[in-house]
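My current task is to audit a protein record that another person submitted. Alongside the sequence sits a line of tokens, each denoting a local backbone shape. Please read both lines and tell me whether the tokens look consistent with the sequence. Do not assume that whoever made the record got everything right. Thanks in advance; the entry in question is below.
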Amino acid sequence: MRTQSRRRPRATLAAAAAGTLLAPLLSGCWVGAGGAGSGGNSINVLMVNNPQMTELQKLTAAHFTQETGIEVNFTVLPENDVRDKISQDFANQAGQYDVATLSNYEIPIYARNGWLREMNSYAAKDAAYDEQDVLKPMRESLTGDDGKLYGQPFYGESSFLMYRKDVFAKQGLTMPEHPTWTQIAELAARLDGAERGMKGICLRGLPGWGEVMAPLTTVVNTFGGTWFDKDWKARLDSPEFEKATKFYVDLVREHGESGASQAGFAECLNNMTQGKVAMWYDATSAAGSLESANSPVQGKLGYAPAPVEKTESSGWLYTWAWGIQNASRNPDKAWKFVSWASSKEYEQLVGDEIGWSNVPAGKRASTYDNPAYRQEAAAFQEMTKEAIEGARPTDPGVQPRPAPGIQFVGIPEFTDLGTKVSQEISAAIAGRQSVETALKKSQALAEKISEEYEGR
């Protein structure tokens, strides 16, 4: 397999992003930095506004600041906005923010551009952090071309299938131990109307490279398709890519949630919580919300591996991680925050004060050995770990790939390409055009990327 091209990404492409990959969006909130760089005994942190991050924000002053004396000024924004703001500040090395939430998509690219501080030297001196406890797939996904770590995970996830086991029982249905997408489509048809207003399945349809394209790309992979072949030829018009896309679009149109073309992670989470759908394929991190003490579906759910067709597994690999800007004025204090926010100590704090199902898991082996976590997250913790450890970011399909990534292509241009393609797919889900037309337009977009990379 060829390695990814090492040319520097254009800032405008690195900045482009759309959609939510995992986090239910709360109402946008802004707190903190106010445009000034950090200094003295404070740091500025820019982060996405998902529930686990906002819990961190609430816990920081009474614990981290009280213990270290370091004040943390948070800027908290929805995912699309935070990605744009991070890319602008880090690309320009403005130093306004010391720490930011980045994913395993951005971190290798940002590291290649020299925008991030390496963390090996910090972790080596911080015995309490226990770097080797971090799951290997997480460490590898946050490693740069030079073999150094440039991020530390706040939480990690893969994808799996969530389903109402009580509804299955009432309908006399059984979830296969390792379901195929063909079986899931058949089950979705039988589950339509199983309860009043209930649809068979929820699948993202909202435009965004991290929204509809995330689950759809895993379907494409297991159906035998790929965005680009090993020689960088665009393959969105291949029979395999078309078959997978048509399957996905037909499934969500025929047996999916209402308003599917505008439904993302947050909407599917709400639909599952409110009993409007019988199945949902999405991020493993959703299980914590579904199994929380105040969830109306707590204890009613079953979990199965990501459905497959031609591959043994198909779950994605994703992490929200902390990156330290190279231009940070307080890198040592920034590391202290990163170390605390990704530590065993912080997980224990969340477990004690909020509940173990809310722990930002998916990153540490010790979490899955913790009796309190295993008990409270018993319904999903083992399958989540297996999904993460079984993810194959360098070999997710049936053919060699030119760049790493399961639900994305690990090149800076993908944010722009994936967003534009997602708009075409969403239009097909909405019934405004055919899948064939959507992919014809998408292939033309991907061919422009091919022209830039072929022969490299």
